[in-house]
Design brief:
Blueprint: E1 22-30, E2 34-41, E3 47-54, H1 55-60, H2 64-74, E4 85-90, E5 94-99, E6 105-106, H3 107-114, H4 120-139, E7 142-143, E8 152-154, E9 160-162, E10 169-170, H5 188-191, H6 199-214, H7 224-233, H8 248-257, H9 271-275, H10 285-289, H11 307-311, H12 324-328, E11 335-336, H13 337-343
Helix pairs in contact: 4-6, 6-8
Length: about 350
């Protein structure tokens, strides 16, 4: 990842943002550690999403390293096809991440509402969004490791962005000891606890596209072991005779992404191999990168989320975090993008 990462030790608490700098509108999501709110920055009037995470839950679930890893990665990443960080701060009981608001909802929500993606034009648009986001991450030496519909979110214009970098890792390190992720989208080398790199993300892309047109994943099982057994038993493949409404180029693209052996997988020779596949033969990547191509996805309302899920009462049953040693686990969490950009104006990040 080069020298683009900068620590935030120079930030002074007296000039850092705090909860009182925002007006909380209403909840728009929830996760394993807390809730997500739509908020407005009082000084600038900008609208953001604010993720609140309870420290007691993070400690109890032994997830401090995951949470801090995401914060540090978001501290230097910035790209139009990911969800970018603007502010990070903490109170005695909670951590807060203030990020881009993605009002179009996640891809899983789209599946629930629309069942599946039904046109090849729309599928290629989705794939291109993910490819461009992965291109940026991989060029910075990062493998995301948890690409799945829940971690792909639409903006108000129907473009898809990558989010949730908790288990992302340096692609050049030995990752054989790390096997976390979501089994239905995990590459075989990850499931089998083998060393893996950026090509694992391409398998996840293929699994998502497979699900988009069939409504199920390439390898199915009730748990991780069953999915692993399914992977080892037989190579999954889309049949062009059964899916004649999809072009051979589209099916070939997906089939090559979900190859079990990483050395046989599309993208093993880099992102240009993915972008250069015949399915994208006439695709204008430069125009698309500028978001100058109209999206086939049109969010129908301002906030696309499961109202029932976010309106349920949030109950915390763990002890409060009061001791100093536990608080030290979250040292260095502060982040203000305006200060960061000023301090790194002479530091070139990969565009």
């Amino acid at each position: 990842m080069g020298n683009c990462f900068r620590t935030d030790h120079h930030y002074q608490p007296i000039i850092a943002v705090c909860l009182e700098d925002f007006t909380i509108k209403y909840p728009i999501g929830r996760g394993g550690y807390g809730q997500v709110f739509k908020v407005q920055h009082n000084e600038t009037g900008q609208i953001f999403a604010m993720k609140e995470m309870r420290k007691n839950l993070i400690v109890a679930k032994k997830s401090v390293s995951t949470i801090m890893n995401e914060r540090h990665l978001l501290g230097f990443l910035n790209h139009p096809f990911i969800v970018n960080l603007h502010y990070a701060f903490q109170t005695r009981q909670s951590l807060y991440l203030v990020v881009d608001l993605m009002s179009g909802g996640d891809l899983r929500h789209y599946f629930v509402i629309n069942n599946r993606v039904r046109s090849e034009e729309a599928l290629r648009f989705l794939a291109a969004c993910i490819v461009v986001g992965l291109e940026y991450l991989h060029s910075n030496g990062i493998v995301h490791r948890d690409i799945k519909p829940e971690n792909l979110v639409f903006d108000c214009n129907g473009y898809l962005h990558i989010t949730d970098f908790g288990i992302a890792r340096n692609s050049n390190e030995d990752n054989s000891y790390i096997s976390s992720g979501t089994p239905g989208y995990m590459a075989p080398e990850v499931l089998c606890s083998q060393n893996h790199g950026t090509v694992a993300d391409f398998f996840a892309l293929g699994a998502i596209l497979f699900e988009c047109i069939t409504n199920f994943r390439p390898y199915i099982g009730k748990n991780r072991k069953e999915i692993r057994d399914a992977v080892l038993a037989k190579q999954a493949r889309l049949d062009k005779e059964e899916l004649s409404q999809w072009s051979p180029e589209c099916l070939d693209f997906i089939n090559r992404l979900i190859m079990r052996k990483p050395e046989n997988r599309l993208g093993i020779n880099g992102i240009e191999e993915v972008k250069g596949h015949c399915w994208f033969e006439d695709w204008d990547w430069m125009k698309f990168g500028c978001k100058a191509i109209e999206s086939p996805f049109k969010p129908k309302k301002e906030d696309n989320f499961d109202l029932y899920q976010v309106s349920k009462k949030w109950e915390v049953s763990y002890e409060r975090i009061n001791n100093l040693n536990s608080q030290k686990l979250f040292a260095g969490y502060l982040f203000d993008v305006t200060l960061f950009r000023k301090d790194t104006s002479d530091t070139k990040l990969v565009e």
